[in-house]
């Protein structure tokens, strides 16, 4: 534990959606934490500027620069032990610049590229999502080829994000869209738990050069189960409005990017249930051997949303908006 606390962690994308959870978890677990981020400008949103201040007040050290500044990145890398990338789409391939810098720095003990979603080496989704995952797979293969010590993280669904997207707890309507039959199972993990697991596995020698899957059994549930739980917690009754699989597939073929990717993700997660598969002997399921005190089953973060519903703006849900014809 003492060695773990001494690891210095650099996070790329640390002011993004999952990145800020990672930065906060790293700080809370006692790690000297560095965040590589773009400089603040007059175009920086107030929420982003406020997040900079919040992380700095918690103890994060900011390194301000662009991903094109190779020497600056190399210099920052030489001050740390572990690198975590939380770069979002469409910056996935920009991680090649980070990998090049890691090779030059020569001191990094572990690199975690920006996965944090489905296990891309195990699924075959609709073409728009497949094309996106191919970019993530390319990063994995490059990391493996370079010999950089790595951990690939499959965190599955961001629980707060998708509970908001599926249930719309901030709205007063009685209709809830159900994708397909609603019976496919998905893994919904609370973002704070994802972040805590990630910092722990980044420091765990057992996870070096391994794929780690976050799949606590209590967080595996279907849309219909989620809606039923929500009804019990709110005392309300909702009208389940099914969106046929054919409609989702058609939208994936006709919508422009990135909305075609978004509907393809919905299809993969909530119609095909591609976050739930049979684990192989060499798969590492994090919750089976790494215990964190705050693990939140789906039922618990539903209570959280009942008490403190988060706004769509806070969750960036306006970036994940799909025009659907419900039937």
Describe this structure in words.
A 5-stranded parallel β-sheet has the order 3-2-1-4-5, with helices on both faces. A 3-stranded parallel β-sheet has the order 6-10-13, with helices on one face. It is globular, with a radius of gyration of 20 Å. It is α/β, with parallel strands linked by helices and 327 residues long. The chain is 41% helix and 15% strand. The mean pLDDT is 89.
Write a concise keyword list for the protein shown above.
alpha/beta, five-stranded parallel beta sheet, three-stranded parallel beta sheet, 12 helices, 41% helix
Helix/strand layout:
Blueprint: H1 2-6, E1 9-12, H2 17-28, E2 33-37, H3 46-58, E3 61-64, H4 70-77, E4 82-85, H5 95-105, E5 110-112, H6 127-146, E6 151-154, E7 157-158, H7 159-167, E8 175-179, E9 185-189, H8 191-202, E10 210-213, E11 220-222, H9 223-234, E12 239-243, H10 245-254, H11 259-271, E13 284-285, H12 298-307
Helix pairs in contact: 2-8, 4-5, 5-6, 6-11, 7-12, 9-12, 10-11
Task: Write a brief structural summary.
The chain has 327 residues and is α/β, with parallel strands linked by helices. It has 12 helices and 13 strands.
């Amino acid at each position: 534990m003492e060695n773990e606390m001494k690891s210095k962690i650099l996070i790329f994308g640390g002011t993004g959606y999952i990145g800020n959870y990672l930065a906060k978890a790293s700080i809370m677990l006692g790690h000297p934490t560095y965040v590589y981020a773009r400089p603040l400008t007059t175009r920086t949103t107030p929420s982003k500027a406020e997040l900079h201040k919040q992380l700095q007040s918690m103890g994060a050290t900011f390194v301000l620069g662009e991903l094109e500044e190779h020497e600056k990145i190399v210099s920052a890398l030489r001050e740390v032990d572990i690198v975590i990338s939380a770069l979002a789409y469409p910056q996935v391939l920009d991680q090649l610049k980070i990998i090049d810098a890691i090779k030059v720095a020569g001191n990094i003990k572990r690199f975690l590229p920006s996965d944090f979603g489905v296990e891309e080496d195990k699924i075959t989704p609709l073409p728009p999502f497949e094309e996106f995952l191919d970019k993530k797979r390319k990063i994995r293969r490059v990391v493996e080829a370079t010999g950089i010590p790595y951990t690939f993280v499959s965190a599955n669904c961001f629980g707060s994000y998708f509970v908001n997207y599926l249930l719309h707890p901030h709205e007063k309507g009685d209709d809830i869209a159900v994708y397909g039959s609603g019976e496919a199972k998905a893994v919904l993990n609370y973002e704070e738990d994802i972040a805590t697991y990630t910092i722990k596995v980044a420091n765990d020698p057992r996870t070096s050069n391994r794929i780690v899957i976050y799949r606590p059994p209590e967080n595996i549930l279907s849309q219909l189960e989620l809606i039923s739980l929500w009804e019990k917690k709110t005392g309300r009754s909702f009208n389940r409005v099914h969106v046929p699989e054919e409609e989702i597939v058609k939208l994936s073929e006709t919508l422009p990017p990135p909305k075609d990717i978004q509907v393809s993700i919905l299809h993969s997660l909530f119609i095909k249930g591609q976050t739930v598969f049979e684990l192989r002997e060499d798969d590492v399921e994090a919750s089976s051997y790494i215990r964190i005190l705050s693990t939140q089953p789906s039922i618990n973060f539903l209570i959280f949303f009942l008490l403190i519903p988060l706004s769509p703006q806070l969750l960036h849900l306006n970036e994940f908006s799909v025009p659907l014809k419900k039937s």
